[in-house]
Amino acid sequence: MLADLKVALVGNPNTGKSTLFNLLTGLNQKIGNFPGITVDKKIGYCRLSQGQTTEIIDLPGTYSLYPKSKDESIVFQVLADKNNASYPDVVVLVADSTNLRRNLLLYSQVADLGIPMLLVLNMADMAKKEGISIDKDKLAQRLGIQVVTVSARKGDGLTELKQAIAQMTPIATQNKGVAVAELAPTAIEAIKKEIDTDNDYYALQVLHQHEHLTFFSGKQQEAIEAIEKAHGFDTVKLQGQETVARYKHLSTILSDVVVDTGAARKFTLTDKLDSILTHRIWGFIIFFFILFFIFNAIFSWSSYPMDLIEEAFVWLTAFGHEHLPAGVLTDLLLDGVVAGLGGIVIFIPQIAILFALISILEDTGYMARVTFMMDKVMRKFGLSGKSVVPMIGGIACAVPSIMSARNIESWKDRIITIMVTPLVSCSARLPVYTLLISLVVPDQKVLGFFNLQGLTLMAMYLISITAAILVALVFKFILKAKEKSYFIMELPVYRMPRWKNVLFTMYEKSKTFVMEAGKVIIAISIVLWVMSSYGPGQRFAAIEKKYETIEATSTDSVQLASLERDRAAEKLENSYAGIVGQTIEPLIKPLGYDWKIGIALITSFAAREAFVGTMATIYSVDSVDGEGGELRLRDKIGAAKDPETGLPIFTFAAAFSLMLFYAFAMQCMSTVAIVYRETKSWKWPIIQLVYMTVMAYVAALIAYQLLK
To answer: Which end of the chain, N or C, is less surrounded by CB atoms within 10 Å?
Structure first.
């Protein structure tokens, strides 16, 4: 799409910049990567009041042009290179109205680069509640730019913002800030001549950051290095001097512009809540009760819609076998594809509830408090406080969580975080846990309120988190690094969740889960059905002949009644899938698994959630001509017996062993791919795959041998 204007959104984290981006662009947006790096690039398109089409780029949040992470370094790389595809015609700086002084530090830096700017004062409604009033006309006059007040959460001020962007001129009007030339006059003059620029601040930033600017040639890099050394350029000292000078300048700008009538109050609502929710004792107790609530809700609230979905698939399978012509295609469709998909679709209510509750915790600002509370604990295990964000995000999905580890400055902390995050139980494990828990854990209340199945589910998540922390401790002593890590994080004020955002998250995550898992499940289900329905050589013909002889000669009514089921079971054992399963059975027998579970273990190395679809396909094939189609998957699996002992396959010991295997095993090709992408090496994903598989096998072995 061709655009008349290119606008970059810049701002501190937690200023509502991304919310504003979503409001301006709606669904007309796409996500890619900045060239040569794995940092997300969000671009959208917007129609302005005068009919112009505007391309809007949402740059990563940063507190300053001096980067502390890969994401933050992108901001200056884009704004410094006029040949960059993302270089903007206009910069819209989004500031938090409740903390304007801190936000304007970044504004003053970007303004000095000489790109036309517009200032957006977001969270105007929050500022009003807190007794903060801002004279935006006086501020606009002092800065020399347009200033617009908006409330992105409510959608207020959007029309005024579009009008302001449409009225922007290609000439920068902002007043100059700090006289940066005085910080390193000779070095700045030398750089200006070397790179042919007349902008003092651009020259100063090049001195500070040229190592990260890929658009400079090797010869230019050497020349800049030489200028640094010749003039004794001290980057750390000069950054400090510049920051102090900028805050002094901002104090004069903001004098009698911002009036805070609520400043005298000792505690705001946020302070009062934080005194309880981040308390060193009560904070952790409250957090664990919230976890209790989440996992209890996943079981309790989802039971009715899950039953409806399960009954619908049972009816569909039975209806299909009754009305569709008998044959290979019908069996493939119903016992392969439908059975496999049914095993995934049934878990939509639980996935939706999990993501809805996580979204509420993030939207209210509580998740940031959990990160803050866990910082001291994490440091003892060799992790940064920032490692908590990816690890908590791992409850949803390891892939975006590993990508979010880019914000961790320390190489050692970042690698350890990447290596242990997949151990945290993600939403793909949820179908496995809930199926097995519903088989072996009774549905009853504890203390009259907590669901025992919900408590068991929570225990699995706590086991996975504990394992991740202990493995991190091991890596702490294995990996060596000199740099020290620091934890700096802003705690946003508490807010009501945006319910539209919560509903959108539920829909998007559930859809992604079904679509992504569905592709894998359909492919695996078709392959599995074929492998389960056919065997090598004349095995199936021999089985048919054997049972035809029994039918013709036997007079035992009991034997004849079970003949068809015995025939189906023997065919399955002699199928390609049966042969594969029985080949690995000696390896997994000590864990309490039979060859059917072995097949599910193999298929779920592509994606964990394939376990349920695989079991659904195998047990549907195991029934005869749709017999058992009226039975639910849990009933079929629960009724499975060991042919040698006659005991159920899924005992408490076997089910718990299997849950531990899935808790620790790396069964996600997407995660392997993203670890390679983030580390730029196959070394780390291979180490991760090996240690997690060994850990899963040993944990499952110990659990089964102790519990059986």
So the answer is: N
Distance of CA 416 to the CA centre of its chain: 17
Q: Above 80 in pLDDT, residue 557?
A: no
Q: What is the layout of strands, in order, in the sheet containing 40-47?
A: 29-33, 40-47, 53-58, 5-11, 90-96, 117-122, 146-149
Judging by beta carbons within 10 Å of its beta carbon (0-12, 13-18, 19+), is residue 289 exposed, middle or buried? exposed
Show the domains of the chain with their CATH numbers.
Answer: 5-166 (3.40.50.300), 180-260 (no CATH), 328-338+511-707 (no CATH)
Q: How far is CA 187 from the centre of its chain?
A: 44
How far is 584 from 521, CA to CA, in rounded Å? 22
More confident residue, 461 or 708: 461
Output the pTM of the full model.
0.62
The residue type found at 72 is E
Structure tokens, 148: 């617009």
Q: Residue 554 carries which DSSP code?
A: -
Contacts of 112 (CB under 8 A, 6+ apart): 176, 177, 178, 180, 199, 200, 201
Q: What element of type H or E holds 442?
A: none
List C-alpha distances in Å: 154 to 19, 25, 379.
10, 16, 39
Please say whether the beta carbons of 597 and 509 come within 8 A. Answer: no
More confident residue, 39 or 360: 360
**Rounded Cα–Cα distance for residues 104 and 75 (Å):** 16
In angstroms, the Cα distances linking 597 to 593, 600, 610, 701 are: 6, 5, 12, 15
DSSP string computed for 231-286: TT--HHHHHHHHHHHHHHHHHHHHTTTEEETTTT-S--HHHHHHHHHT-TTHHHHH
Phi, psi of 446, rounded to the nearest 5 degrees: -115, 130
